[in-house]
Design brief:
The protein is an alpha+beta fold. Helices cover about 35% and strands about 15% of the residues. It has 13 helices and 17 strands. The strands form 5 sheets. It has an 8-stranded mixed β-sheet with strand order 8-10-9-16-17-13-11-12, with helices on both faces. Strands 1-3-2 form a 3-stranded mixed β-sheet. Strands 4-5 form a two-stranded antiparallel sheet. α7 packs antiparallel against α13 and α9 packs across α11. The radius of gyration is 21 Å and the shape is globular.
Length: about 475
């Protein structure tokens, strides 16, 4: 086998289980690729020792396959615990923290035979869609190493684009599985709420605006990883015992897709993005789908009001103790402090009113998705920006009033907890990648993967390798 890194994760796993390739061979190739490109990109951090990782691969070769990921290397996003590796969350307040156990879905990955090799870089506390932090530094975009790779699952997306990994995990509050996928020419999926288990501690009911999910270079590999990450259906009150998504069927014929574009002019976009993304969505017509541009179904200001209230309330709850602790008080980035302070200004009725708006939008989206099989939106409003910038201050002449306003296109999905697959849309005249979100009704994760698989067959964008290779 000449280059095992050119195989998909599904193909790698099949080759190992059939004996056509060893886990040690795959690990050797993986470590060589990391040594080749990671010093320039800084996507994988807190790497394990090469000798130890090779020994784990040899051990995998000497035992019966544990599960569908047997022998596959994976690095875990540095917001999530993987025993044996530090979880810094990109913050000096937690640098060097060694967890006692795996987070729930990481334990599922190990049980399925995956070999954890390190962590993938993320912004501090995952805040902001630009992967930089004072612990591990900045991750560069492999299609232009002077530009941002997005975030917060930026390290994962870059590792996939450069074949350092064939599958990767991530998390998504405000597009963190979708924006970096689009900016790195790979696939990312935010699954339906409740499908992938979160940490068992703390509140299990109120703060439901984020979820974990898979990233890959093909929809088939997204499905492979999602089914492993999903685990049993009794881990949280919102878990519903979802059926496995299985292998995507590449089905688009007869499907109706609603293109939402710039939400009837509510959101600014840099030149070229809307045209590129609409052209990408229309490729589904080549597969037998019908694509229809529609007007915005809900008021964008109400969406933003609900989102900013619930997000700041959630951040105040999760990070407030870190701000209050004298030992860590001065170790939070300004955006984190701002979120906490905004959240602490809210009353219970403020949060209730935000939840009412969210409920109105969910009902609206559910009704819309009875008429359409999927909604389509771009994965970003701006092209990858210079990596030395912390966040974009304006888009197309419109000032951004918060550090995350430039990602407003992400919040309809996040507020409603809908499944969304980010698919590559191709490249702009500037040579930079962009993506499209395909969004379905709650619980229709398999249908969205079927659509993505059909799209993949007629585009194959991830086969365009980044210049860094």
């Amino acid at each position: 086998m000449s280059d095992p890194l050119k195989l998909t994760a599904t193909e790698q796993a099949a080759a190992i289980q059939s004996g056509a390739m060893t886990a040690e061979t795959l690990m050797q190739a993986t470590l060589a690729r990391i040594e080749e490109v990671n010093p320039t990109l800084n996507a994988i951090v807190s790497m394990g020792d090469n000798d130890s990782l090779l020994a784990k691969a040899r051990a995998a070769d000497g035992e019966a396959p544990k599960g569908p990921l047997h022998g596959l290397p994976i690095a875990i996003k540095d917001l999530v615990d993987a025993k044996g590796y530090p979880t810094s969350q990109g913050s000096p307040a937690f640098a060097g923290h060694m967890p006692d156990a795996d987070s729930p879905y990481v334990a599922l990955l190990r049980a399925a035979g995956a070999i954890i090799i390190g962590k993938t870089n993320t912004p501090e506390f995952g805040l902001g869609s630009h992967t930089y932090n004072p612990v591990h530094g900045t991750t560069a975009n492999p299609y232009d190493t002077t530009r941002s790779c997005g975030g917060s699952s930026g390290g994962a997306a870059v590792a996939l684009a450069t074949q350092m990994l064939s599958i990767a995990d991530g998390s998504d509050m405000m597009g963190s599985l979708r924006n970096p996928a689009g900016w790195n020419n790979v696939y990312g999926m935010r699954p339906s709420w409740g499908r992938v288990p979160d940490d068992a501690g703390g509140d299990m009911f109120l703060h439901r605006i984020s979820t974990n999910g898979p990233m890959a270079r093909t929809p088939q590999d997204l499905a492979l990883l999602l089914d492993v990450m999903s685990g049993p259906g009794d881990h949280a009150p919102y878990a519903q015992g979802f059926a496995a998504v299985g292998t995507p069927k590449s089905q688009a014929k007869g499907k109706r897709i609603a293109w939402l574009g710039d939400w009837s002019g509510a959101w600014p976009f840099e030149d070229g993005i809307l045209d590129l993304c609409q052209t990408a969505v229309e490729r589904l017509a080549d597969c037998g789908a019908t694509v229809e541009a529609i007007e915005a179904p809900f008021d964008s200001d109400r969406l933003w009001q609900s989102w900013t209230t619930l997000r700041s309330w959630s951040m105040a709850a999760s990070l407030g103790a870190v701000l209050d602790d004298p030992a860590t008080h001065n170790q939070l980035k300004p955006e984190a402090v701002w979120e906490i302070e905004e959240g602490r200004r809210l009353s219970g009725l403020d949060v209730h009113h935000a939840s009412e708006i969210r409920s109105d939008w969910y009902r609206t989206a559910a009704q819309l998705l009875q008429d359409y099989d999927a909604l389509a939106l771009p994965t970003a409003q701006i092209w990858p920006f210079p990596m030395e910038n912390t966040w974009p201050r304006e888009i197309a002449g419109r000032k951004m009033d918060t550090y995350h306003r430039w990602m407003e296109v992400m919040i309809p999905v996040s507020l409603a907890g809908l499944p969304a697959v980010a698919v590559p849309a191709g490249f702009g005249a500037n040579g930079l990648p962009m993506g499209v979100q395909l969004v379905g009704a709650h619980g229709t994760d398999a249908n969205m993967l079927d659509l993505a698989a059909a799209y993949h067959e007629v585009t194959l964008w991830p086969q365009i390798r980044p210049p860094v290779l």
